[in-house]
Amino acid sequence: DDEDDGDVALALKTRPKTKRPPLYKVMLLNDDYTPMEFVVAVLERFFSMNHAQAFEIMLTVHKKGLAVVGVFSHEIAETKVMQVMDFAQQHQHPLQCTMEKE
Ligand code: TYC
């Protein structure tokens, strides 16, 4: 009677926090030397794109300077960046891949 909506007020203040983990954009950067076919192969191999999708994203990077190629959890994003950077180094291409919090 005195404080009939006390628990409602409390419920509003103590709403369960369901915090989702942050997501990270993985980006490919343009350069003047990495062959277009190599970038397409990277997108097919590490980002599960078909050839047409991969070619389109590669052209976007080539024209705009960079593009987001996927959005992942922190751990998956780090793994993708490592895989791309290792693969590029193995083939002596200067291709750069980075990640950024969404
Ligand atoms: N600019 C490169 C070329 O003309 C192609 C390229 C595309 C390189 C995308 C990197 O992330 C890249 N051969």
From TrEMBL:
Keywords: Hydrolase, Protease. GO terms for molecular function: peptidase activity. GO terms for biological process: protein catabolic process; proteolysis. Residues 19-98 form the Adaptor protein ClpS core domain. InterPro entries: ClpS, ClpS_core, Ribosomal_bL12_C/ClpS-like. Belongs to the ClpS family. PANTHER family: ATP-DEPENDENT CLP PROTEASE ADAPTER PROTEIN CLPS, ATP-DEPENDENT CLP PROTEASE ADAPTER PROTEIN CLPS1, CHLOROPLASTIC. Binds to the N-terminal domain of the chaperone ClpA. Involved in the modulation of the specificity of the ClpAP-mediated ATP-dependent protein degradation. This is ATP-dependent Clp protease adapter protein ClpS. The gene is clpS.
